[in-house]
Design a protein that fits this description.
The chain has 93 residues and is of the alpha+beta class. Helices cover 37% and strands 20% of the residues.
Length: 93
């Protein structure tokens, strides 16, 4: 009879990089962006940083400044991102 050892499940198989998320969140909180207090930084999934916003106006503003934000994050944190994913914050549940 062959006894199999249980396989260990990696809790981070989702692709979320928590160290990058914390580093970017810290940078945004210290930055002087006019919108930095109005967003909730989310996780980094692969090369995409997720940002949660409260209203559509702020979402549109961040979408317009996406490349500028990515360049600033890369310059100050040395983390390369391909895109921002801006989502509406859902607190109605």
């Amino acid at each position: 009879m062959v006894i199999k050892e249980p396989t260990r499940i990696n809790p981070n198989d989702s692709g979320i990089d928590f160290s990058k998320s914390k580093k970017i969140e810290s940078y945004i909180k210290k930055s002087n962006f006019s919108w930095s207090q109005d967003i909730t930084p989310g996780p980094v999934l692969g090369d995409v940083f997720i940002v949660y916003v409260q209203n559509n106006r702020l979402k549109n503003l961040l979408e317009l400044e996406e490349q500028k934000i990515i360049l600033n994050i890369e310059k100050h944190t040395k983390i390369k991102l391909k895109a921002l994913k801006i989502q509406m914050f859902n607190d109605k549940q």
